Automatic annotation (TrEMBL):
Its EC number is 6.3.2.1. It comes from Candidatus Saganbacteria bacterium. Gene3D superfamilies: HUPs, Pantoate-beta-alanine ligase, C-terminal domain. The gene is panC. GO terms for molecular function: ATP binding; pantoate-beta-alanine ligase activity. It holds the Pfam family Pantoate_ligase. InterPro entries: Cyt_trans-like, Pantoate_ligase, Pantoate_ligase_C, Rossmann-like_a/b/a_fold. This is Pantothenate synthetase. Pathway: Cofactor biosynthesis; (R)-pantothenate biosynthesis; (R)-pantothenate from (R)-pantoate and beta-alanine: step 1/1. Its main location: cytoplasm. Homodimer. Beta-alanine binds at residue 61. GO terms for cellular component: cytosol. The lineage of its organism: Bacteria, Bacillati, Saganbacteria. (R)-pantoate binds at residues 61, 156.
């Protein structure tokens, strides 16, 4: 596993691999790796000739009162995990420095209008601008053929797909199913913030999504009734402070007025200071 910190070196490494006909798979992460990340790496390994994993805690996707300073960082553990699970099969671990990605005079940002303003964008108005900007920069450094994103961050991967299409980037975006804990909680680096009581309470988010899914699959067509039941169900857990729960079109993220085709049920909530998100896609009978 080769470690690269310099963006120019990363670019040259990828260009050399591409010149030899190798397909490059890229897994961008912010570290604090877990089984969810490993599922992305597994898929990249299966589909690619050269796998690049990046670890970069992106400062511009955090709001002024968010958790950038306390976001979990344990590079030693991340390296150990990648080496122990994959041996020498991860080709490159890319570790760019913040000063190389966003120098002091940096002033160019990418905003995906529409998609970036819905769901999480309502309470985190600058978040997806930061995500799109850093992902574009990483794509320019790594030059991947394939990039892998988890379905837990559904809105994020939808925004990245839109950016890739709008800007004619030669990258195929691959979505990988959400990996869950034993009780259904979606794996997330932020789960490490939860104390035991909060961790136990957090499982209600997935159960709430399943409740909505069951309602839809059993034939309920009134989206307002479904959302009311889900909100009431989440309200039985006093440690959970709901940010939103919505039924939306899975392609546009517009609120659904009529249930047909496919629907996305998405939730965001706080447990203490920790914000968690989750979603399920449902086929409407």
């Amino acid at each position: 596993m080769r470690e690269i910190k310099d963006p120019r070196e990363m670019y040259l490494c990828s260009r050399k691999a591409g010149s030899h006909g190798k397909k490059i798979g890229f897994v961008p992460t912010m570290g604090a790796l877990h089984e969810g990340h490993l599922s992305l790496v597994n898929e990249a390994r299966r589909r690619s000739d050269m796998v690049v994993v990046s670890i970069f805690v992106n400062p511009i996707q955090f709001g002024p009162r968010e958790d950038f300073s306390r976001y979990p960082r344990n590079l030693k553990w991340d390296k150990k995990l990648l080496k122990s699970v994959y041996g020498g099969e991860i080709d490159v671990l890319f570790l760019p420095q913040a000063s190389a990605v966003f120098p002091d005079d940096f002033s160019t940002f990418v905003a995906v209008e529409g998609l970036g303003e819905k769901l999480c964008g309502r309470s985190r108005p600058t978040h997806f601008r930061g995500v799109a900007t850093v992902v574009l920069k990483l794509f320019n450094m790594v030059r991947p053929d394939l990039a892998f994103f988890g379905e837990k961050d559904y809105q994020q991967q939808l925004i990245i797909r839109q950016m890739v299409g709008d800007l004619n980037l030669p990258v195929q975006i691959i979505s990988v199913p959400t990996v869950r804990e034993f009780d259904g909680l979606a794996m997330s680096s932020r789960n490490a913030y939860l104390n035991p009581a909060e961790r136990k309470s957090a499982a209600i988010l997935y159960r709430a999504l399943c409740l909505a899914k069951e309602e839809i699959e059993s034939g309920e067509k009134d989206h307002k009734k479904i959302l009311l039941r889900v909100r009431s169900f989440i309200g039985t857990e006093p440690r959970v402070r709901l940010d939103y729960v919505n039924l939306v079109n899975p392609e546009t993220l517009e609120d659904i007025k009529e249930l047909k085709g496919k629907a996305l049920i998405a939730v965001a909530a706080y447990l203490g200071k920790t914000r968690l998100i989750d979603n399920l896609t449902v086929d409407v009978p």
